[in-house]
Automatic annotation (TrEMBL):
SUPFAM superfamilies in alphabetical order: beta-lactamase/transpeptidase-like
Gene3D superfamilies, per the entry: DD-peptidase/beta-lactamase superfamily (3.40.710.10)
Protein name: SpoIID/LytB domain-containing protein
InterPro entries on file: Beta-lactam/transpept-like (IPR012338)
Superkingdom of the organism of origin: Bacteria
């Protein structure tokens, strides 16, 4: 947008400037302030794209009192204080000071989120006040020494610090690109998560490069392994090219390579026509630059820009060169990159299939380690200096369970390609049970009553497109209506009226209404049992290890040692044998299957259980609290007869069943018929601690007596506690036939 057009398009947003006669002449001072403000507004619109919509506050221009000798002006929101040398004279020094202080006033109005970012404020004020030309005439100062000076004086409140800042700003021939990105962030009203840094102003020449490795679970999102400073933001090279493709609203084009253009040098035997698939695995810069030249490429990663910003991308790319890392002006940490790829793998599995070709025919091909990348989607990136020497290499690797990001300073990705399969194997060796576990959750709760909150960055996925989720608690049901919901950097917190404090769920939610459930004819079933047997509208995916730990804690958090290992093995086994509970559906989280109340801390016993060989049985394995603690319960006789039949007599219990006699009539004959049904149906409907041992019928009540808790079949947990056996012998005693 030209300056003339900008001036015409600007909103009338000039504040009222108030004077009180102590800086003169007043009319000329106000006129100077109004002209400076209009110039500030024009610059802001040119860089940020539009003007702020709200009206500015009035600003008082007054003589400064008690200012330090090194200062010619100072201010606070709504007040500018000036040092005037001669009364009635507005010399150039005072005019520059006025423009500088009004720049701060402008930012307090247009960009309140940046109020605490002193470096950003001072950089903007220097860039727009006309002071830079003066500083260019100062003696030469190296970029390194300027950076060191600012590191020692981050408030930029001394002449030496301002000189250093001017030196960094003068690296750009025009308006500093870093400030342009930040002004656009202001206009977008984005969170000011990361303050402006000297590295951001200076670019890659000043950027620290650090070695780092991080591995995440695709399912639970937990950090399974980290080494180095995984939170250090660094130039990311070509690693974000898949997000450009993912963010495109149209099909990426097929382009002809241009051999004379260096950016098209992306491997030997490049085909005559290059599509996005080839451009990704070959990492062809020329393809993406020419795509932008055609006018159809997404700006700022399209819908994926919000994702990258949420995980720490330092700014919005101005163009494709920024987006694909040709210019090292933006930064992202290894942790943030891993989080973004976790969401990308969930949303766009077809892109992971494309990137799985990187080791076969792309940037990691024809290496000794290439075969070790079988089944692994990989993307490389290289950050280079002005002489094309590698300053930082990246490899992102995604397999069915893990996301790994490896960064190595001073190396090309091919030079450390062998490290990535090794770190994936190392993580799997260290911790078993990292594969996916799926469970139907919260089936006993009304779907509309369930709320979820992501304390990290939450996104719903609609046909592969991410949509940001509100930061506060939100109804879960509409979030999963069109796809999965993923919380990056944190577990979900889920609450409902019965659990107002909420529970943690580290994993991914999807919506999946179960088929209608019809109980067997003649079998009495309580309302809660009907809900449990129906299943849930919500599916939750986490790791088998996290799921197993959650079930063991829900079933008996006090367990220790061998019995905890044994129960954990049964729990993990049953997650793979849920068909007898819910045909064609995952296991549920109620006692109909095995209780699961969210994510808990994994104990060493669960890790031992998941590292053990699979159990030899091929069916659902029952377990109960068990024990020998005696109990007695009374229930209304009418309730019992509604379950077993009117006039029931001769009730006894054996082999996990209830046996009884019912009086029947056929024709003119009357006789007693023997009946039997699983005791668990009676126990569940009457909410008894366990299957009774005796039942005594009275006129209006039935008294039950028994021992222990649960249905009494399979693994008796209480008995196992006192057995002194190891986990293997506990399981053999419980299930051997």
């Amino acid at each position: 947008m030209g300056w003339a057009a900008v001036t015409v398009a600007m909103l009338a947003a000039t504040p009222v400037f108030l004077t009180r006669g102590d800086v003169t002449p007043e009319a000329e001072l106000r006129a100077e302030a109004e002209a400076a403000w209009k110039a500030l507004e024009a610059r802001y619109v040119a860089e940020a794209g539009s003007a702020p919509s709200r009206a500015p506050v009035n600003i008082s221009l007054r003589k400064g009192e008690g200012m330090l000798p090194s200062r010619n002006g100072q201010g606070r929101p709504g007040v500018v204080e000036l040092r005037q040398g001669l009364p009635g004279v507005l010399d150039e020094r005072l005019r520059v000071t006025l423009r500088h202080e009004l720049a701060h006033q402008f930012l307090w109005w247009a960009c309140p989120a940046s109020a605490e970012d002193r470096l950003f404020h001072e950089a903007f004020a220097l860039a727009v006040s006309g002071e830079l030309a003066e500083w260019r005439e100062a003696p030469y100062q190296s970029l390194t020494s300027a950076s060191a000076e600012l590191a020692h004086n981050p408030d930029v409140d001394t002449p030496r610090a301002r000189r250093a800042l001017a030196r960094v700003l003068n690296e750009d021939s025009g308006f500093p690109k870093a400030l342009t990105r930040r002004l656009r962030q202001c206009q977008d009203e984005a969170r000011w998560a990361v303050p402006l840094s000297v590295d951001e102003l200076a670019g890659v020449a000043m950027q620290a490069m650090a070695s780092a490795t991080v591995v995440l679970s695709r399912h639970s999102g937990e950090v399974l392994f980290s080494e180095g400073d995984i939170r250090t933001a660094m130039p990311y090279g070509s690693t974000l090219k898949p997000f450009v493709v993912a963010g495109s609203a149209v099909s990426p084009p097929v382009l002809s390579p241009r051999a004379e253009v260096p950016e098209w040098m992306c491997g030997e035997r490049l085909p005559g026509k290059v599509d996005a698939r080839t451009a990704l695995v070959r990492s062809c810069n020329g393809y993406f630059l020419d795509w932008e030249g055609q006018g159809s490429a997404p700006r700022a990663f399209g819908s994926w820009g919000a994702v990258l910003t949420a995980v720490g991308l330092s700014g919005v790319p101005l163009d494709m060169a920024d987006a694909i890392g040709l210019r090292s002006t933006l930064r992202l940490s290894p942790w943030g990159l891993a989080q973004a790829y976790r969401l990308l793998a969930e949303a766009r599995p077809e892109l992971m299939e494309v990137l799985a070709g990187s080791a076969a025919r792309g940037t990691l091909s024809e290496l000794p380690a290439s075969k070790a990348y079988a089944g692994v989607a990989a993307k490389t990136g290289t950050v280079r200096d002005a002489e094309s020497r590698p300053r930082l290499g990246w490899i992102v690797a995604v397999d069915e369970d893990l996301v790994a990001v490896v960064a190595r300073p001073g190396k090309m990705p091919r030079a450390f390609a062998d490290e990535v399969p090794e770190v994936l194997a190392k993580v799997r060796k260290k911790r078993s049970g990292l594969e996916a576990a799926r469970v139907q959750v919260l089936g006993l709760v009304s779907p509309g009553a369930i709320e979820a909150r992501c304390q990290g960055a939450g996104f719903s996925l609609e046909q592969g497109t991410p949509r940001a989720i509100p930061e506060d608690f939100t109804k879960l049901e509409p979030l999963v209506a069109k796809g999965s919901v993923v919380c990056l950097g944190s577990p979900w917190r889920v609450r409902f009226p019965e659990v107002p404090a909420g529970r943690d769920y580290a994993g991914i939610f999807t919506g999946s209404p179960p088929p209608p459930y019809r109980p067997p004819a003649g079998v009495p079933t309580s309302p809660n049992a009907l809900k449990a047997r129906r299943g849930s509208d919500f599916l939750f995916r986490t790791t088998r290890l996290q799921y197993t730990a959650g079930v063991v804690a829900a079933e008996d958090a006090t367990l220790k040692g061998e019995v905890r290992v044994a129960l954990a093995q049964v729990v993990a086994h049953n997650e793979r044998h849920a068909d007898s509970r819910h045909p064609g559906r995952p296991v549920c989280d109620t006692t109909h299957c095995q209780a699961f109340l969210g994510t808990v801390r994994v104990r060493p016993e669960e890790e031992r259980a998941l590292a053990a060989p699979p159990l030899r049985w091929r069916e659902w394995l029952l377990f109960s609290q068990g024990g020998q603690e005696p109990w007695q319960e009374t229930r209304p006789r009418g309730q019992v007869e509604s379950l077993l039949g009117p006039g029931v007599t001769g009730v006894r219990f054996s082999d996990g069943r209830v046996h009884y006699l019912l009086t029947k009539r056929e024709g003119g004959a009357v006789f007693d018929a023997a009946e039997s049904q699983p005791c668990e149906l009676l126990r569940s409907a009457l909410k008894l601690p366990a299957c009774p041992r005796t039942a005594r019928f009275e006129d209006r009540e039935v008294s039950f007596e028994g021992r222990g808790q649960g249905h009494g079949e399979g693994l008796d947990v209480e008995a196992a506690k006192v057995s002194g056996l190891d986990a293997g012998r506990i399981l053999e005693r419980a299930y051997a036939r």
